[in-house]
């Protein structure tokens, strides 16, 4: 059964000026339910994450500043949101949803988090709308519990997964692969195990060709027994922030390449949705929904 983490807090705790890009977190499950791709029993609401699990990935001093709402204003500006208790709760529920999703993926082959992909959060910083790194937290959880031995993180959001790269820089059991816009945020990149930096305006054919080659390389080199996939749709040509030029069709083909590689190698995959900032919210939602639709077709 396809299991999908979704909580009402995914969409609602933000100031008015930040709400537009967050609407998708409500609209994605609504659309999938409306069209019959999923049923209500496919959705689950994650509980708050425990402090012990957070501290296996993030520094204690940073976490205490988040929890106590004492993070300096300079660091809040780096995140891009004013710090509130509701926002912190949102982040810890997102991270728990990714952990739960990893467990469901091991049972069913694949699982989703409607939110997540908070890949700019490093061990002791937040950045780019990310406070806690959900897939890094979940990867460490699997390793620490002996539930996985070799993890591959595939990050195809248009922005480099700098926080993920920093967290796992000295962890050989986790291979970080980021394919992203070279001239896009973050402007100071960290070093992933494999970085593919794309020029502004990169289109469908080049993107897909480079991804095909990279997937053969990373699966062959690392031989993972679990995959985390960040499937941001800010790679679209219509995206306000992305600077790449992918079509919706190519975005779906991108997801298919990742899913088919996981199926070929018989490796479960947890998917977090990442960014998307096109002017038309329908484009964002439909492109994200394509990822769920494809999984429903392939993972049966």
From TrEMBL:
The keyword Signal does not apply. It holds the Pfam family Hist_deacetyl. CDD domains: HDAC_classIV. Residues 20-280 form the Histone deacetylase domain. Keywords: Hydrolase. Belongs to the histone deacetylase family. This is Histone deacetylase.
């Amino acid at each position: 059964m396809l299991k999908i983490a979704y909580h009402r807090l995914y969409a609602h705790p933000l100031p008015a000026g930040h709400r537009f890009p967050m609407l998708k977190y409500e609209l994605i499950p609504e659309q999938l339910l409306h069209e019959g791709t999923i049923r209500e029993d496919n959705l689950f609401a994650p509980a708050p994450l425990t402090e012990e699990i957070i501290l296996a990935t993030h520094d204690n001093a940073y976490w205490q500043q988040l929890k106590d709402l004492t993070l300096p204003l300079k660091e809040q500006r780096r995140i891009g949101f004013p710090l509130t208790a509701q926002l912190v709760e949102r982040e810890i529920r997102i991270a728990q949803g990714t952990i739960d999703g990893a467990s469901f993926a091991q049972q069913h082959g694949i699982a989703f988090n409607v939110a997540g992909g908070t890949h700019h959060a490093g061990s002791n910083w937040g950045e780019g709308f990310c406070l806690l790194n959900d897939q890094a937290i979940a990867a460490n959880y699997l390793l620490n519990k002996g539930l996985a031995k070799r993890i591959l993180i595939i990050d195809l959001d248009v922005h480099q997964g700098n926080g993920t790269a920093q967290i796992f820089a000295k962890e050989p059991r986790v291979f970080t692969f980021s394919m992203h816009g070279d001239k896009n945020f973050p402007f100071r990149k960290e070093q992933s195990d494999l970085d593919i930096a794309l020029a502004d305006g990169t289109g469908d054919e080049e993107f897909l060709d480079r991804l095909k080659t990279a997937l053969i390389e990373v699966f062959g080199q690392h031989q993972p027994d679990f995959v985390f996939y960040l499937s941001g749709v800010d790679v679209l040509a219509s995206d306000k922030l992305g600077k790449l030029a992918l079509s919706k069709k190519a975005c779906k083909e991108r997801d298919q390449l990742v899913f088919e590689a996981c199926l070929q190698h018989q490796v479960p995959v947890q998917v977090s949705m990442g960014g998307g900032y096109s002017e038309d919210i329908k484009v964002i939602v439909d492109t994200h929904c394509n990822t769920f639709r494809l999984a429903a077709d392939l993972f049966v």
